[in-house]
């Protein structure tokens, strides 16, 4: 049934607009080569991080494979969320978050590099699993923050929603443009982890800040800034990609 419908669509496009048929064929060919997508990584630390990851991958024991590192990354992010949730009872849990963020970086960043260095790439499997793991990890991290007392729960939920919106935008751009963007405005996952770790150290010593004569939780201020930035990114790239797709698929008059 699906094959018949596809053939009917192809015949219809060929009769009505040959350009649409060509676009469909190009899209089909592109989907068959998921490893050919353009990876856009323009973050501040991208070059240094790439060198470090290749060095680590070359020295990773053979018994450790990319799946092990993916599991490490997810487990570490869940651990960071648990540490945040434990903060009301013991503020030293904030230091545990930093340790888990470092382990999350190792697992989440090294798994793909290890697969590329060993020439064991599975593009569709890796893309799907890696980003579903990121979604579950973000849920655990933001859930822990919502329970930590360090940030208003509503703000933590809003940050999670905006992260998922930014992810959806990125995945749709990957499918429609063949361009997978890892960083936005020179900020990538590694820079965000570093900012969060530095914020944790500041939070450990000084949990509140004073602005305009009022006292606020440090992470409420930082979270509001982060939310504004992520919202701006979603809007900017949505408009940019919509305009690009409109120009590329302009209907001839």
From TrEMBL:
Gene Ontology molecular function: phosphotransferase activity, for other substituted phosphate groups
TM region positions: 93-115, 127-147, 153-172, 217-239
Presence of the UniProt keyword Acetylation in the record: no
Full protein name: CDP-alcohol phosphatidyltransferase
InterPro entries associated with the record: CDP-OH_P_trans (IPR000462), CDP-OH_PTrfase_TM_dom (IPR043130)
Gene3D superfamilies associated with the record: 1.20.120.1760
Superkingdom in the source lineage: Bacteria
Any GO CC annotation of this UniProt entry: membrane
